[in-house]
């Protein structure tokens, strides 16, 4: 699999997981992040996914989404979703 394909798979999976947090009211995540912030994460990752699918990918130095920093600074280490956010953002940046 190419790096782009890997990033697409990771981002699609992450978007689904973020939407499930909102749909299910997952308090493990919502205790450290607001529904508005999760919705913003979904929006940003959907835009990134669209860029990948359409081939309209910005230069590497313009691909920092900023969510990994928020997760690292504010979320507890044991939240699996936090690692998934970091991993998906890193996959996007490494294309």
Task: Note down, in words, how this protein is organized.
With 95 residues, this protein is mostly helical. It has one domain (3-93). It has five helices and no strands. The chain has helices at residues 3-24, 27-30, 35-54, 67-74, 80-93. α1 (3-24) runs antiparallel to α3 (35-54). The longest helix has 22 residues, at 3-24. It is globular and about 35 Å long.
Give the topology, please.
Blueprint: H1 3-24, H2 27-30, H3 35-54, H4 67-74, H5 80-93
Helix pairs in contact: 1-3, 1-5, 4-5
Please state the CA-atom Rg, rounded to the nearest Å.
13 Å
| Number of helical elements | 5
Number of folding domains?
1
- Profile the largest sheet: none
Structure summary:
The chain is mainly alpha-helical and 95 residues long. The chain has one domain.
Keywords, separated by commas or semicolons:
0% strand; mainly alpha; 95 residues; single chain
């Amino acid at each position: 699999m190419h790096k782009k394909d890997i990033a697409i798979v990771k981002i699609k999976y992450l978007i689904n997981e973020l939407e499930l947090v909102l749909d299910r009211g997952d308090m493990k995540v919502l205790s450290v992040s607001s529904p508005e912030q999760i919705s913003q994460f979904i929006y940003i990752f959907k835009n990134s996914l669209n860029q990948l699918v359409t081939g309209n990918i910005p230069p590497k130095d313009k691909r920092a989404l900023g969510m990994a920093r928020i997760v690292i600074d504010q979320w507890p280490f044991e939240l699996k979703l936090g690692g998934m956010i970091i991993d998906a953002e890193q996959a996007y940046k490494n294309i």
